[in-house]
Amino acid sequence: MGTGESGDPSRLPTEINEIRFDVKKKSSRKARTRYRIWAYYMAGGVLSLFCIVVLLHPDYAYLHVSGPMNIGHEELACEDCHKSERGNLRQQLQANVRYLLGRGTNPVAVGYRAVNNYDCLYCHERPNDRHPVSRFFAPRFREARERIRPQYCVGCHSEHNGKRVTSGMSYCDVCHEKIEVENDPVSISHRQLARDGNWASCLACHDYHGNHKMEVTRDFDTRITEQELRRYFAGEIDSPYATQKFHKARARVEP
Protein backbone atom coordinates (compact mmCIF):
# COMPACT_ATOMS: atom_id res chain seq x y z
CA MET A 1 0.00 0.00 0.00
CA GLY A 2 1.35 3.42 -0.92
CA THR A 3 4.53 2.02 -2.52
CA GLY A 4 3.58 2.43 -6.19
CA GLU A 5 2.27 -0.03 -8.71
CA SER A 6 5.31 -2.33 -8.45
CA GLY A 7 5.16 -2.45 -4.65
CA ASP A 8 8.83 -1.43 -4.57
CA PRO A 9 9.42 1.43 -2.04
CA SER A 10 12.50 2.50 -4.01
CA ARG A 11 10.23 3.50 -6.94
CA LEU A 12 8.27 6.13 -4.92
CA PRO A 13 10.69 9.11 -5.28
CA THR A 14 11.00 8.44 -9.01
CA GLU A 15 7.23 8.40 -9.49
CA ILE A 16 6.84 11.63 -7.50
CA ASN A 17 9.49 13.30 -9.63
CA GLU A 18 7.75 12.11 -12.78
CA ILE A 19 4.44 13.56 -11.57
CA ARG A 20 6.11 16.86 -10.70
CA PHE A 21 7.77 17.01 -14.13
CA ASP A 22 4.46 16.26 -15.84
CA VAL A 23 2.70 19.03 -13.85
CA LYS A 24 5.46 21.51 -14.69
CA LYS A 25 5.31 20.51 -18.34
CA LYS A 26 1.54 21.05 -18.50
CA SER A 27 1.81 24.37 -16.62
CA SER A 28 4.53 25.53 -18.99
CA ARG A 29 2.40 24.55 -22.00
CA LYS A 30 -0.59 26.49 -20.63
CA ALA A 31 1.58 29.53 -19.93
CA ARG A 32 2.91 29.49 -23.50
CA THR A 33 -0.64 29.20 -24.84
CA ARG A 34 -1.80 32.16 -22.74
CA TYR A 35 1.22 34.15 -23.88
CA ARG A 36 0.45 33.44 -27.54
CA ILE A 37 -3.19 34.49 -27.09
CA TRP A 38 -2.23 37.76 -25.43
CA ALA A 39 0.42 38.35 -28.08
CA TYR A 40 -2.20 37.89 -30.81
CA TYR A 41 -4.56 40.28 -29.04
CA MET A 42 -1.83 42.88 -28.61
CA ALA A 43 -0.71 42.59 -32.23
CA GLY A 44 -4.30 42.85 -33.44
CA GLY A 45 -4.94 45.86 -31.23
CA VAL A 46 -1.81 47.67 -32.40
CA LEU A 47 -2.59 46.90 -36.04
CA SER A 48 -6.20 48.06 -35.65
CA LEU A 49 -5.11 51.28 -33.97
CA PHE A 50 -2.58 51.91 -36.74
CA CYS A 51 -5.25 51.40 -39.42
CA ILE A 52 -7.66 53.73 -37.62
CA VAL A 53 -5.05 56.48 -37.34
CA VAL A 54 -4.05 56.12 -41.00
CA LEU A 55 -7.62 56.08 -42.31
CA LEU A 56 -8.60 59.11 -40.23
CA HIS A 57 -5.73 61.17 -41.58
CA PRO A 58 -6.91 63.62 -44.31
CA ASP A 59 -4.05 62.63 -46.62
CA TYR A 60 -5.45 59.10 -46.85
CA ALA A 61 -9.13 59.98 -47.35
CA TYR A 62 -9.02 58.49 -50.85
CA LEU A 63 -8.54 55.04 -49.31
CA HIS A 64 -12.04 54.92 -47.84
CA VAL A 65 -14.11 57.41 -49.85
CA SER A 66 -17.52 55.89 -50.55
CA GLY A 67 -17.85 57.06 -54.15
CA PRO A 68 -17.87 60.11 -56.42
CA MET A 69 -19.22 63.40 -55.08
CA ASN A 70 -22.74 64.36 -56.06
CA ILE A 71 -23.42 66.96 -58.73
CA GLY A 72 -22.53 70.42 -57.42
CA HIS A 73 -20.25 69.04 -54.69
CA GLU A 74 -17.28 68.18 -56.87
CA GLU A 75 -15.09 70.96 -55.45
CA LEU A 76 -15.87 70.27 -51.80
CA ALA A 77 -13.19 68.89 -49.52
CA CYS A 78 -13.95 65.99 -47.19
CA GLU A 79 -13.64 68.30 -44.18
CA ASP A 80 -16.37 70.60 -45.55
CA CYS A 81 -18.98 68.02 -44.52
CA HIS A 82 -17.13 65.60 -42.25
CA LYS A 83 -16.29 67.47 -39.07
CA SER A 84 -13.96 66.19 -36.37
CA GLU A 85 -15.57 64.78 -33.26
CA ARG A 86 -14.78 66.56 -30.02
CA GLY A 87 -11.74 65.36 -28.11
CA ASN A 88 -8.72 63.41 -29.27
CA LEU A 89 -8.62 59.76 -30.30
CA ARG A 90 -7.80 58.52 -26.79
CA GLN A 91 -10.70 60.45 -25.26
CA GLN A 92 -13.12 59.19 -27.91
CA LEU A 93 -12.10 55.57 -27.33
CA GLN A 94 -12.37 56.02 -23.57
CA ALA A 95 -15.86 57.50 -23.92
CA ASN A 96 -17.01 54.51 -25.98
CA VAL A 97 -15.50 52.04 -23.51
CA ARG A 98 -17.36 53.78 -20.67
CA TYR A 99 -20.57 53.57 -22.70
CA LEU A 100 -20.09 49.83 -23.32
CA LEU A 101 -19.51 49.31 -19.60
CA GLY A 102 -22.75 51.12 -18.80
CA ARG A 103 -21.01 54.16 -17.34
CA GLY A 104 -21.77 56.56 -20.20
CA THR A 105 -25.02 57.89 -21.63
CA ASN A 106 -24.16 57.97 -25.35
CA PRO A 107 -21.47 56.61 -27.67
CA VAL A 108 -19.37 59.09 -29.61
CA ALA A 109 -17.96 59.00 -33.11
CA VAL A 110 -14.31 58.10 -33.55
CA GLY A 111 -12.44 60.64 -35.63
CA TYR A 112 -15.27 62.31 -37.55
CA ARG A 113 -18.89 62.71 -36.50
CA ALA A 114 -21.72 61.65 -38.78
CA VAL A 115 -22.98 64.16 -41.34
CA ASN A 116 -26.48 65.44 -40.53
CA ASN A 117 -29.10 67.89 -41.80
CA TYR A 118 -27.34 70.86 -40.23
CA ASP A 119 -24.28 70.26 -42.40
CA CYS A 120 -26.45 70.27 -45.54
CA LEU A 121 -28.59 73.23 -44.51
CA TYR A 122 -25.54 75.36 -43.77
CA CYS A 123 -25.25 75.76 -47.55
CA HIS A 124 -28.75 74.89 -48.77
CA GLU A 125 -31.22 76.32 -46.26
CA ARG A 126 -33.49 78.92 -47.85
CA PRO A 127 -36.80 80.62 -47.03
CA ASN A 128 -40.06 79.42 -48.55
CA ASP A 129 -38.81 75.89 -49.20
CA ARG A 130 -41.90 73.93 -50.23
CA HIS A 131 -40.67 70.75 -48.58
CA PRO A 132 -38.27 71.64 -45.74
CA VAL A 133 -36.90 68.58 -43.95
CA SER A 134 -38.01 69.99 -40.59
CA ARG A 135 -41.67 69.65 -41.62
CA PHE A 136 -41.46 65.87 -41.79
CA PHE A 137 -40.68 65.45 -38.11
CA ALA A 138 -44.34 66.21 -37.38
CA PRO A 139 -46.35 63.22 -36.07
CA ARG A 140 -48.62 63.10 -39.12
CA PHE A 141 -45.68 62.20 -41.34
CA ARG A 142 -44.76 59.04 -39.41
CA GLU A 143 -45.51 56.74 -42.34
CA ALA A 144 -43.53 58.94 -44.72
CA ARG A 145 -40.55 58.85 -42.36
CA GLU A 146 -40.65 55.07 -42.31
CA ARG A 147 -40.98 54.68 -46.08
CA ILE A 148 -38.84 57.36 -47.72
CA ARG A 149 -37.02 59.26 -44.91
CA PRO A 150 -37.96 62.78 -46.13
CA GLN A 151 -36.91 64.21 -42.76
CA TYR A 152 -33.29 63.79 -43.85
CA CYS A 153 -31.57 65.54 -46.74
CA VAL A 154 -29.85 62.27 -47.63
CA GLY A 155 -33.27 60.64 -48.01
CA CYS A 156 -33.31 62.09 -51.54
CA HIS A 157 -29.71 63.22 -51.97
CA SER A 158 -27.58 60.33 -50.77
CA GLU A 159 -23.99 61.51 -51.13
CA HIS A 160 -21.12 59.79 -52.96
CA ASN A 161 -23.27 58.55 -55.82
CA GLY A 162 -22.19 61.04 -58.47
CA LYS A 163 -25.80 62.11 -59.00
CA ARG A 164 -28.04 65.07 -58.23
CA VAL A 165 -31.06 63.15 -56.85
CA THR A 166 -30.97 59.51 -55.73
CA SER A 167 -34.56 58.85 -54.60
CA GLY A 168 -36.31 58.27 -57.92
CA MET A 169 -39.52 60.02 -58.98
CA SER A 170 -42.48 58.03 -57.66
CA TYR A 171 -42.55 58.88 -53.95
CA CYS A 172 -45.18 61.67 -53.96
CA ASP A 173 -47.97 59.18 -53.29
CA VAL A 174 -46.73 58.72 -49.73
CA CYS A 175 -48.28 62.07 -48.77
CA HIS A 176 -50.53 62.97 -51.71
CA GLU A 177 -52.35 59.72 -52.42
CA LYS A 178 -55.78 61.32 -51.89
CA ILE A 179 -55.03 64.62 -53.60
CA GLU A 180 -57.96 66.82 -54.61
CA VAL A 181 -57.53 70.22 -56.31
CA GLU A 182 -60.55 72.51 -56.40
CA ASN A 183 -61.16 73.97 -59.87
CA ASP A 184 -58.25 71.92 -61.15
CA PRO A 185 -56.67 73.89 -64.04
CA VAL A 186 -54.61 71.05 -65.53
CA SER A 187 -55.71 69.37 -68.75
CA ILE A 188 -55.63 66.02 -66.92
CA SER A 189 -56.78 66.46 -63.32
CA HIS A 190 -54.54 65.72 -60.36
CA ARG A 191 -57.19 63.34 -59.11
CA GLN A 192 -57.09 61.37 -62.34
CA LEU A 193 -53.29 61.24 -62.37
CA ALA A 194 -53.31 59.93 -58.80
CA ARG A 195 -56.00 57.39 -59.64
CA ASP A 196 -53.88 56.18 -62.57
CA GLY A 197 -50.81 55.91 -60.35
CA ASN A 198 -48.92 58.36 -62.55
CA TRP A 199 -46.80 59.69 -59.70
CA ALA A 200 -43.72 60.30 -61.81
CA SER A 201 -45.67 63.12 -63.47
CA CYS A 202 -45.65 65.22 -60.27
CA LEU A 203 -42.05 66.31 -60.70
CA ALA A 204 -42.65 66.80 -64.41
CA CYS A 205 -44.62 69.94 -63.51
CA HIS A 206 -43.55 70.83 -59.96
CA ASP A 207 -40.11 71.72 -58.60
CA TYR A 208 -39.94 69.84 -55.28
CA HIS A 209 -38.19 72.63 -53.35
CA GLY A 210 -39.70 75.47 -55.38
CA ASN A 211 -36.35 77.15 -55.93
CA HIS A 212 -36.48 77.49 -59.72
CA LYS A 213 -38.04 80.59 -61.28
CA MET A 214 -40.60 78.89 -63.47
CA GLU A 215 -44.25 78.84 -64.48
CA VAL A 216 -46.11 75.62 -63.75
CA THR A 217 -47.65 74.35 -66.96
CA ARG A 218 -51.37 73.68 -67.18
CA ASP A 219 -51.09 71.64 -70.35
CA PHE A 220 -50.09 68.11 -69.43
CA ASP A 221 -48.65 67.54 -72.90
CA THR A 222 -46.02 70.26 -72.38
CA ARG A 223 -44.67 68.82 -69.13
CA ILE A 224 -41.04 67.83 -68.67
CA THR A 225 -40.56 64.30 -69.94
CA GLU A 226 -39.64 61.45 -67.63
CA GLN A 227 -36.45 60.88 -69.62
CA GLU A 228 -35.37 64.49 -69.10
CA LEU A 229 -35.99 64.21 -65.37
CA ARG A 230 -33.99 61.01 -65.09
CA ARG A 231 -31.07 62.59 -66.94
CA TYR A 232 -31.29 65.70 -64.76
CA PHE A 233 -31.34 63.65 -61.56
CA ALA A 234 -28.36 61.66 -62.82
CA GLY A 235 -26.46 64.89 -63.48
CA GLU A 236 -26.30 64.40 -67.24
CA ILE A 237 -28.11 67.65 -68.19
CA ASP A 238 -28.81 71.06 -66.66
CA SER A 239 -32.13 71.80 -65.01
CA PRO A 240 -35.16 71.38 -67.29
CA TYR A 241 -37.20 73.48 -64.84
CA ALA A 242 -35.48 76.84 -65.34
CA THR A 243 -31.99 78.32 -65.54
CA GLN A 244 -32.57 80.92 -62.83
CA LYS A 245 -33.05 80.22 -59.13
CA PHE A 246 -34.41 82.25 -56.25
CA HIS A 247 -31.54 81.27 -53.97
CA LYS A 248 -28.08 79.91 -54.71
CA ALA A 249 -26.23 77.49 -52.48
CA ARG A 250 -24.10 79.19 -49.89
CA ALA A 251 -20.32 78.90 -50.10
CA ARG A 252 -18.96 76.59 -47.43
CA VAL A 253 -17.19 78.83 -44.93
CA GLU A 254 -16.89 77.94 -41.28
CA PRO A 255 -18.80 80.33 -38.98
TrEMBL record:
Annotated GO CC locations: cell envelope
Chief location bin: other
Necessary cofactors: heme c
Molecular function GO labels: metal ion binding
Location(s) in or outside the cell: Cell envelope
Transmembrane segments: 37-56
Keyword annotations of the record: Electron transport, Heme, Iron, Membrane, Metal-binding, Transmembrane, Transmembrane helix, Transport
Domain Tetrahaem cytochrome: 74-177
Protein name from the UniProt record: Cytochrome c3
Organism expressing this protein natively: Candidatus Kentrum sp. SD
Lineage summary: Bacteria, Pseudomonadati, Pseudomonadota, Gammaproteobacteria, Candidatus Kentrum
